[in-house]
Write a structure and sequence with these properties.
- The chain is α/β, with parallel strands linked by helices.
- The protein is built from 13 helices and 17 strands.
- Helices cover about 45% and strands about 20% of the residues.
- The radius of gyration is 23 Å and the shape is globular.
- The chain has 2 domains: about 5-140, Orthogonal Bundle (Arc Repressor Mutant, subunit A); about 145-360, Dna Topoisomerase Vi A Subunit, Chain: A, domain 2 (3-Layer(aba) Sandwich).
């Protein structure tokens, strides 16, 4: 393990111990132990006009031991802090799912979690109050499987030491799998011109098979649907540290537009990490409603839930631009949606030879 990683682990462990010490100090001072957090409701999430990301508002709530329910929550927090600190001390890691099951073996039944949502939320609470990410606690989600394919050489930290990998030459057709904590990756050198985030595995495979990454210096990031935190983090690092433009390529429906929104502006669920995960400069390449019209793509009709989602997006601060207002209203007018793979109706090479070069040219990327 490198010295930088050791220092990061020690910092995370100290923050956790400091939290536990605060509870002890409150006890010693004759106070009822409590923990203050931002109120984690949709009404307390704000779109920051300066940073262009979702952030928590000013409202807070208090977890206090002055009630049985509050005391149980703090008890669970103490047991979780103890587990995470020990995990860091031993240089081990675990998944969010494992934490839920592990709590069943704790010596206090009251400290066990009722379900995984409860344990997930507590880990997020600890992130907020400690200002340390769960990745630095060595907590992993279940495998996301998201990958990179492009002209980038990296150095990554593994349990067997450091290794260098080229994300085209040293990987198979599946690409380089993004680790749980992308901050353990060091960018060495690259020939990337832009980052292309792709929603579906089928489109990602089409781009790689057609050599789009090699022909255009593209770093193809497979979002695998709604992107995991690690995927959004490495995308932000590629933009910020290598000064690369980022474009997002999804299906043409309201749920996919929200995938773009989570890459660019962050999500409500992880508002406390928006500045760490979101890339506000990311642009949307398609599928646009205008593409459905221009290319006469095969479509499906909009469902009632699609229509409701589109109307909601017209009120969403993330989509309050002339471009999005025009595109969403057009989609509501035509009543249709289309998948990325619908471009194959014009041939398997159409997306790489025509559609993306034309769209990226219009956007000034190519």
């Amino acid at each position: 393990m490198s010295s930088d990683t050791e220092l990061q682990d020690e910092k995370a462990r100290e923050r956790l111990i400091d939290l536990a010490a605060e509870f002890y100090d409150q006890f010693a001072g004759g106070q009822i132990p409590e923990m203050e957090l931002p109120t984690r409701t949709k009404s307390n999430i704000e779109y920051d006009e300066d940073s262009h990301v979702w952030v928590y508002g000013d409202r807070t709530s208090t977890r206090s031991a002055n009630s049985v329910r509050g005391a149980r929550k703090l008890l669970k927090a103490i047991y979780t802090i103890d587990f995470l600190a020990q995990q860091l001390d031993e240089g081990r890691s675990s998944t969010l799912r494992e934490l839920y099951y592990l709590s069943e073996s704790w010596d206090s039944k009251e400290a066990g979690f009722n379900d995984q949502d409860e344990s997930n939320q507590l880990v997020e609470d600890l992130e907020i109050v400690s200002e340390v990410t769960r990745e630095d606690f060595h907590m992993r989600p279940e495998e996301s499987g998201a990958t990179l394919m492009g002209p980038l050489r990296i150095r990554e930290q593994t349990r067997r030491g450091e290794r260098e990998i080229h994300c085209q030459e040293d990987v198979g057709e599946g690409g380089y799998q993004i680790p749980n904590n992308p901050d353990t990756i060091e960018f060495l050198d690259h020939d990337i011109e832009f980052v292309l985030c792709v929603e579906t595995g089928g489109m990602r495979d089409r781009l790689v098979e057609n050599g789009f990454d090699e022909d255009h210096g593209a770093m193809v990031v497979h979002l695998k649907g709604q992107p995991a935190r690690a995927t959004r983090r490495i995308t932000k690092r590629l933009h910020d540290e290598l000064d690369l433009p980022v474009v997002v390529f999804t299906d043409g429906d309201p749920w996919s537009y929200r995938i773009y929104g989570s890459v660019a502006y962050g999500s409500i669920k992880s508002a406390h990490l928006s500045e760490y995960l979101a890339t506000p400069e990311a642009k949307f390449v398609g599928i646009q409603p205008q593409d459905i019209v221009d290319y006469d793509l095969p479509t499906d009709p909009l469902s009632d839930s699609d229509i409701n989602a589109l109307e909601s997006e017209l009120e969403d601060p993330r989509f309050q631009t002339e471009y999005w207002t025009e595109q969403i209203n057009l989609q509501l007018d035509i009543g249709k949606k289309a998948e990325q793979q619908a471009l194959a109706s014009r041939g398997l090479d159409f997306v790489t030879d025509t559609y993306l070069p034309e769209r990226l040219g219009e956007m000034g990327i190519l």
